[in-house]
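Put briefly, the fold is written as integer tokens. One such record reads:
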Amino acid sequence: MFTGLIEGTGTLLKIDHRGVDAGMIIQADYIMHPLTLGESIAVDGCCLTVTSFKGSVFTVDVSAETLSRTTLGRKPPGCRLNLERALKMGDRLGGHLVSGHVDGIGVLREKRREGVSTRLFFDIPADLSRFVIGKGSIAVNGISLTVNGCGPGRFDVNIVPHTSDRTTIGSFRIGEEVNIETDIIGKYVEKMLEAWKRGETGEEPATGTRIDSEFLRKHGFM
């Protein structure tokens, strides 16, 4: 689990395609505390496992599933990547809960200067829009951001100078593809409400999932 507060950036030294999978060699551009084999690290918002390391250079494996659902497979050597190590229990949660499991790919549609900040407008797959709400949280290439505005297939965020300076988002270009992870809480809420929706529409709910007065009495709520 991550927070979306980027620790620093790294440079992709090499990507080695191995059939449907791939391996990546990355060099952190900042002083990174000693890594451990098998630990999780978010690379541009994708949760990956460290398979080897030496100093500031580490390697990760990238599965076929990750390559198909994220932008990692199209990253060229020399590009910068956002890096965040996993959250420790007891640490401050300054961003929001980010799993590192990318939901889909968005595209930067417009950049607009607003004072010292920059507003970015993104297009996203239409089926992700139901999880995006105004003033809610969203992760773009692993960066925890607040949604300023949203609508079907789109949302916009405000980027302050600190975020531009410390992450790759300040160098985004129009048309650039980005990894999008919507708020995990919204996805769980929708899943839990599916049974309730089926009950409202008269459809037969899955066994044991319908929440009604009988269910509440059985479990001591009434």
Q: What stands out?
A: Residues 184-201 form the longest helix (18 residues).
